[in-house]
Amino acid sequence: MAVTVQDIARKVGVNSSTVSRVLNGYRNISEETRRKVLDAARELNYHPNSIARNLAKGSSASIGVVLDASNSEEFSNFFFSRSLFAIERAAQSYGYNVIISSSYKEGEKRSPIEDLVMQKQVDGLIVPPFALDAHLLDVLNNMNFPYVFLGQPARSGLQVSWVDLHNAQGSAQAVAHLYERGYQRICFLGGNPDAGFVKQRITGYTDAIEAHQKPYVVNTKGTPESAEKASYQALKNMEEKPDAFICCDNYTAFGLMSTLKRLQLNVPKQVGIVTFDNFPLAEFMDPPLTAIDIDTDLLGEQCATMLFQRIEKPMPSQQMLLSTTLIKRKSTERA
Amino acid sequence: MAVTVQDIARKVGVNSSTVSRVLNGYRNISEETRRKVLDAARELNYHPNSIARNLAKGSSASIGVVLDASNSEEFSNFFFSRSLFAIERAAQSYGYNVIISSSYKEGEKRSPIEDLVMQKQVDGLIVPPFALDAHLLDVLNNMNFPYVFLGQPARSGLQVSWVDLHNAQGSAQAVAHLYERGYQRICFLGGNPDAGFVKQRITGYTDAIEAHQKPYVVNTKGTPESAEKASYQALKNMEEKPDAFICCDNYTAFGLMSTLKRLQLNVPKQVGIVTFDNFPLAEFMDPPLTAIDIDTDLLGEQCATMLFQRIEKPMPSQQMLLSTTLIKRKSTERA
DNA sequence: ATGAAAGCGCTAACAT
DNA sequence: ATGTTAGCGCTTTCAT
Questions:
Q1: At what angle do helices B16-23 and B5-12 cross, to 10 degrees?
Q2: What CATH number was assigned to the domain covering residues A167-294+326-332?
């Protein structure tokens, strides 16, 4: 059915290995046969069978990306999927396919990821840290299989490669910006305490603020209602009444805004706001919120790039933190 | 390096084809050799090489999903990625891998999708309709390659298979619900006019409303600001002043809410609101908004299922519309 | 610069 | 019920 190297070889009158050489750009080929082969390939509308090619070469020309499924929280999936798209783009430019796979393992079956690796379907893996259990981690390490974590693992002792956003730096940027604008008592409004990055954001705040004031972290569940209540309490606390908030995400910021309206506190005059993330609300609030933007595209791209390096040659583990960007808007424009 | 069927065959003292038969669950195998082979496989920690297997079987055991890249609008990507996860889950249960690929074609290269298909890397394709140009469509049809559109194509004449959400039905549900609650003059607040589903939502509204009133569609750009202005105008129009709105998405609803606060109109007493989509804001607004929810998981799952049917045996094209669900909340609770 | 032949690891048609 | 053999379509020695 399909056109093969043999067909081209017959048509041109050479051996199939010669065709292969031409198609793979080997140098020691006479200009004449090269042209003839290429012409024939075009005429016959030849497309290499990548499966056969991969079998012969002993590679799969694919990487696997493990989906962030256990964390099915809609919001974080959004950021993850942005990175996923960027990974695909990078992979394409390196000539790799991207196979996605959930980490979910049903019943007694082997985990789909283990299958992906052991069955030689992928040459490398991009994984959210929590998706790898101890067993799988062992397997990968023992066979020296290339993988990169998309996000910093909680157990920081591990000698593994990862790429993550510099959440702590984001907090520091926010703190610096708020002080620069004249705010004096800065409160951190926390988010869903289960998410790893929330801890990093809080720690970053705590570290950065110490030079100026006692840290003031108010925890919330990450929902607007929860943030509304928590921020209300904070503003009723007359002793340490904040004049600025750093919100852990757009939803807590949304809740905070409700409280401020209720208390008739003016933003940015009486209260300044910086929020983490520039989605889905920051720019649409009234006033638009100064935001710590994270580059999820870059995250995916760097993650993929790091993986390809590791696939091409073994190397010691690397870690990379990507800078956040402060987008200044009305909510911190104190006169 | 890796363990092969040969290794097992040698160890057990049978031929590799026998091993293959056992591993593939053929019936005419003596219980004894079956056990010996399976034991040996386990002992040697055998994993089949899927590339070799695919080459021999002439299939790839993979499907391709084309990424919604040209439409990089963050919001719609969110819904798409939800479907993507569901596709992966379905594929896994059918024993297929999912390869993602952007449709973006750089320079003179062939499109990545065409490569995916022609190089036998995938057995079927799930595609957002716009991602397929006329040429590629021809290629696929001529070779009878199985594919399913994720979303209804704009050119409705095409005899192709697709799965989509029943947007028009959603509008009809909203209209019926609002009338039932006693609202009388229902206005549709449109969204980004470039999105295909927006047209469907508007048409659904227009059709459903005709029994009751003259259709009243107010267009917006899909941003909160735009929706705020447009809804303000609508409410100033004394002749046909609406007492209810159907919003094309959560962002237009957000804009509308600003206007209503400004005009001090009470929701749900003076104005009722139904919004399309239950993300990211509908449940967090004050009051929480009645929403037309769409099941993006189901969308992905059905799309995949349809594709697998078509891969297994050729069949006439099918189309499927998935029902929307009305989630009733405070914003339509007229006393 | 090119041909011949072996082989990647598996499955399947044909024997027995 | 099992062994033999021939591929799947490509790459890659090893010759010449």
A1: 110
A2: 3.40.50.2300
CATH 1.10.260.40 correct for A5-48: yes
B74:A82 CB<8 A? yes
Contact A92/B101, CB-based, under 8 Å?
A: yes
Nucleotide nearest to B18 (CA to C1'): D2
**How many cross-chain Cβ pairs, A to B, lie less than 8 Å apart?**
126
Task: Tell which of A62, A74, A97, A116 to mutate to test the B interface (max B CBs under 10 Å).
Answer: A97
Verify whether the Cβ–Cβ distance B258 to A286 is below 8 Å: yes
The structure tokens 């509908």 sit at: B282
* Rounded CA–C1' distance between B292 and D4, in angstroms: 64
Q: Are strands B162-165 and B319-322 parallel, antiparallel or unpaired?
A: parallel
| Domain B62-161+299-321, architecture per CATH | 3-Layer(aba) Sandwich (3.40)
The answer to whether B52 CB is within 7 Å of strand C is yes
Domain ranges of chain B: 5-48, 62-161+299-321, 167-294+326-332
Helix locations, A143-262, DSSP H:
167-180, 196-209, 224-236, 250-262
Residue B71 above 60 pLDDT?
A: no
Q: Strand D and chain B: which residues 30-69 have CB closer than 7 Å?
A: 30, 32-34, 52, 55-56, 58
How far apart CA A188 and CA B331 sit, in angstroms, is 32
Cα angle: A309, vertex A165, B65; to 5 degrees? 65
- The answer to whether A44 CB is within 7 Å of strand D is no
- Rg for chain B (alpha carbons), in Å? 26
Point out the residue among B121, B224, B279 whose CB comes nearest to the CB of A97.
B121
Per-residue pLDDT of chain A (335 residues; tens, 9 = 90+): 799 999 999 999 999 999 999 999 999 899 999 999 999 999 999 999 999 999 999 999 999 999 976 655 666 778 888 999 999 999 999 999 999 999 877 776 789 999 999 999 999 999 998 888 889 999 999 999 999 999 999 887 778 999 999 999 999 999 999 999 999 999 999 998 888 899 999 999 999 999 999 999 999 999 999 999 999 999 998 888 999 999 999 999 999 999 999 999 999 999 999 999 999 999 999 999 999 999 999 999 999 999 999 999 999 999 999 999 999 999 999 97
Place of tokens 């980490």: A103
pTM for the full model?
Answer: 0.95
Q: How far apart are the first and last CA of chain B?
A: 75
Rounded CA gap, B66 and B115, in Å?
12
